[in-house]
Amino acid sequence: MEASEGKSKKQGASRLCCLCNQRRPVLKRPKTLQQICKECFYEVFEEEIHQVIVKNHLFKSGERVAIGASGGKDSTVLAYVLSELNRRHSYGLDLFLLSIDEGITGYRDDSLETVKRNELQYGLPLQILSYKDLYGWTMDDIVKMIGLKNNCTFCGVFRRQALDRGAALLKVDKLVTGHNADDIAETVLLNILRGDIARLSRCTSITTGEDGPIPRCKPFKYTYEKEIVIYPSLLNHFLVLSLTSIVFFFHTYAYFKKLDYFSTECIYSPNAYRGFAREFIKDLERLRPRAILDIIKSGEDFRIATTTKMPEQGTCERCGYISSQKWCKACVLLDGLNRGLPKMGIGRARGGVNGDHQKETKKPASAARSLESKQCGSLDF
Ligand code: SF4
């Protein structure tokens, strides 16, 4: 009798959220596999990000912070959560949205409409900079000239500099991006596969560019993509669903919270090499959810041999941007475009301004390969 009572109590308890033990669970957390209710999910999701911010001293009171906003789920959830945490915990930050218009018709023009709505929804001032204004070229123009190979190299290099220029325009102290744990694990793996020691040594840092114009932070460093996706999406929670199925059916913390975000992929995305790494990490995650955190930990624990030659930081002779070469990558790529020799900038033709310099310093071949094969530049950190 006692045994059956105990069994039925245990069964009852298993139907309750394992954190509050009061409400029915509506999801299984991808990170911990705990079955929890919607309210506890929001609480742990936001609290973990708050703890990352506090433990890593990401911000100081009074700082101006730009949120790199593309209109996609990561940056939309970041803008929402950071606004909430700033208010709730009195961080004392002045927050801004900073968007880059690459000039991709049918993609960025639509996603920027979402960011403009977010500006009103969250009450955050928005600054938009375009490639056309900064470089005289849109990505549509560039793709017309170079086709769909290496387009992301141009886009990524230009975006990185455009974000810094936007941050300078806004006079912010920090720039935050929505890179999540999956992005970072993927980048660790790619940098190992490419033998790109310089990037490997910095890709797991939560703050980068402290020696550059504007430090960049990644408050979502330990946040799983599947949880960002679910944060807004627990609408039909009558069943305990695995996150995989929720992601599949509803797409996104953004959907749960009914956040307004844009979910279409870039029309110029090649996605081959990076896509393979991404799928591999998703497979590992299915077998062992901790795999993502473990890859990040491995990246953090790498020690670069003191004999390894690292690029020396200087400034571009042409535009003054940080560069380890005579001209920065953006200037080299732009020069190639303007001269009608776009391949010159991606290391396929001789005679570029940095060509001689590269010969002098005997730069490892891996550096050129890394630039050639880089995919979506939004992930270039
Ligand atoms: Fe630019 Fe990313 Fe599109 Fe490539 S996939 S063209 S980097 S927005």
Give the fraction of residues assigned to helices.
40-55%
Given as residue ranges, the uncertain stretches (5+ residues, pLDDT < 50) are: 1-5, 235-251, 356-375, 377-381
Radius of gyration: 22 Å
Q: Could you say what the CATH topology of the largest domain is called? A: Rossmann fold
Give a summary of the structure in a few sentences:
By secondary structure, this protein is an alpha/beta fold. The protein has helices at residues 2-14, 38-55, 73-88, 108-122, 131-135, 139-146, 151-169, 181-194, 197-202, 225-230, 243-250, 273-287, 291-301, 329-338, 353-361, 365-373; strands at residues 27-28, 35-36, 64-68, 94-101, 126-130, 174-176, 207-208, 216-217, 241-242, 314-315, 322-323. 48% of the residues lie in helices and 9% in strands.
Secondary-structure blueprint:
Elements: H1 2-14, E1 27-28, E2 35-36, H2 38-55, E3 64-68, H3 73-88, E4 94-101, H4 108-122, E5 126-130, H5 131-135, H6 139-146, H7 151-169, E6 174-176, H8 181-194, H9 197-202, E7 207-208, E8 216-217, H10 225-230, E9 241-242, H11 243-250, H12 273-287, H13 291-301, E10 314-315, E11 322-323, H14 329-338, H15 353-361, H16 365-373
Parallel strand pairs: 1-9, 3-4, 3-6, 4-5, 6-8
Antiparallel strand pairs: 1-2, 7-8, 10-11
The structure holds iron/sulfur cluster (SF4).
